[in-house]
Amino acid sequence: MFNLIGALISGLVVGAFARWFYPGAVEMGWFMTSLLGVGGALVVGLFSSWSTGEGVREGFSRAGCLGSILGAMLLIWIGRMLGWGF
Fold it and tell me: How far lies 13's CA from each of 16, 68, 73, 81, in Å?
């Protein structure tokens, strides 16, 4: 239960940074921002485990946070290219 709450809170922080760094206004609520951050972390985690052949590492790292923000920005870009409205 606490892992889920921690993931949503860290996702909110990552999603907020992604929305802040992304050029232009990104219209979404706090819950969607949190899901965006969690999705960005999943995208980067899956890509890194796929490219290195290692499992997903647990714990905090600055590179992981930066990668999660970039992954969330990638999800914003993909969403805009597909016309999802944010």
Answer: 5, 10, 13, 24
